[in-house]
Amino acid sequence: MHSSLQRIFTALNRVSPWLAGCAAHVLFTTPLKPRRLSAAEKRLAARADAKLATAQDIGFVHDGKRISAYRFGARQQPVSKRVILVHGWMSAARYMLAMVDPLIELGHEVVCIDLPAHGTSSGLRTNLVECASALEALLSKLDGADVVVAHSFGGAVTAFTLSRLSPGALGDNGHIVLLASPNRLSSVTHGFSQALGMGTAGQRAFEKRLCRNIGTTLSEMDGNRMYEAIGYPLSIIHCIDDEEVSIEESRRFLELGDQAALTELSGLGHRRILYHADALKALVSVI
């Protein structure tokens, strides 16, 4: 977190923890513009945009917002699956596209979504409820899917979405693949508050406002509780050197027993897991 932002929140927390919590909530629900891309990242982005241009545009309007969605390939029954890719916070469908060709080569159909206020979807601010609602609308538009592959915040969106739908939303052989996703919302809010330099009172004010916005409690936003109720098998891929979401978050999913399986990688951090050959090989092996 930028040092000047930390100083502001530390000072604000001293004056009014409640005000600091409100400001933190605004920041937490506002996807910031990505940092300036390196030359290599620009080349990757250009290739991603060229790939997007080959997709079928299946975007739609939901709750007054334009939601961008893209379809690649076509299901080749009976062996193929419809796979939905769900990106993380401050990311976009374009950053998930390295997964498309390996999945299409297996005969699967791949669908990507830009969550509200991300990518080319409309909006400046969003939250977990809005993102889950958009994913639910996409599932309805497609008349279901077989697999959801979700990165980081996308895992929380997937859990929140499926927990609100009727059992069997992904069909009898539904499957969820999590890539470096947090297990508990409380871990995310604690880390965010620490990064801002807020004290306990400011963090509590922030969490209270966030939970009121979501319509639930922190304890209910527990990945193990939610995915156990959802019931689908979980395949989890995470790098041990991830500095944004700790590997311990994924290891906690193993408390679900036979429902969850974890593949641990190294050297890829939080984002290279989206396109590195080792990660793609691990992904293909579990779908």
Automatic annotation (TrEMBL):
<feature type="domain" description="AB hydrolase-1">
    <location>
        <begin position="83"/>
        <end position="197"/>
    </location>
</feature>
<protein>
    <submittedName>
        <fullName>Alpha/beta fold hydrolase</fullName>
    </submittedName>
</protein>
<dbReference type="InterPro" id="IPR050471">
    <property type="entry name" value="AB_hydrolase"/>
</dbReference>
<dbReference type="Pfam" id="PF12697">
    <property type="entry name" value="Abhydrolase_6"/>
</dbReference>
<dbReference type="InterPro" id="IPR029058">
    <property type="entry name" value="AB_hydrolase_fold"/>
</dbReference>
<keyword id="KW-0378">Hydrolase</keyword>
<dbReference type="InterPro" id="IPR000073">
    <property type="entry name" value="AB_hydrolase_1"/>
</dbReference>
<dbReference type="GO" id="GO:0016787">
    <property type="term" value="F:hydrolase activity"/>
</dbReference>
